[in-house]
């Protein structure tokens, strides 16, 4: 009988632990966004390279790509990589190149096979082709506001740029809610970043919507 009580208490504890974590994550997220929205963006605009490995079309692909062409930011380039020139996203990217000749938009087809993950292979090529030190990696289904790049570079205002810095960036994945594919990854990853920030972990992490 005593043993059954111990097992019951242990089961209850295991059931309550995830709930407690999600409550902590919600509080951490609310504190994070309240603090970030109250902070003014620093007047720094270092050159940025936006890397977009693309495969096929997502929901609202043109509008997603367009949002990166409409950035209120003086110096950035936009680099796309596809598996081959027959990718359905190619005509959309070429359309943007015609519509925004003042933007530095480059398109690359194919990449050296460094491993089994073709997306990583494309990213490796984009990194080699990038002309700036600050790299922003963004999927094809992400749509952002015009201040996005200002928000991304803001954490570098009060610290020197190191040879390797990790910036965790989460954009609004339009296809997530429309097709129910990537939403769980975005939601669960964001909550871990917020909790880590609240716990002041050793690895400095910043999340941006």
Structural write-up:
This protein is of the alpha/beta class and 209 residues long. The protein has one domain (48-198): Spore Coat Polysaccharide Biosynthesis Protein SpsA, Chain A (Alpha-Beta Complex), CATH 3.90.550. It is 46% helix and 13% strand. Helix 2 links the parallel strand 1 (48-53) and strand 2. Helix 1 (2-38) packs across helix 7.
Helices, strands, pairings?
Layout: H1 2-38, E1 48-53, H2 61-69, E2 76-82, H3 90-99, E3 104-109, H4 118-129, E4 134-137, E5 142-143, H5 148-153, E6 172-173, H6 174-179, H7 183-198
Parallel strand pairs: 1-2, 1-4, 2-3
Antiparallel strand pairs: 5-6
Helix pairs in contact: 1-7
Structural class: alpha/beta
Number of separate structural domains: 1
Amount of helix:
40-55%
**How is the CATH topology named?**
Spore Coat Polysaccharide Biosynthesis Protein SpsA, Chain A
Low-confidence stretches: 164-189, 201-209
Order of SSEs, N→C? HEHEHEHEEHEHH
Q: What is the 3D form? A: extended
Separation, N- and C-terminal Cα atoms = 52 Å
Tally of individual helices? 7
Main sheet summary: 4 strands, parallel
**Main sheet strand line-up:** 3-2-1-4
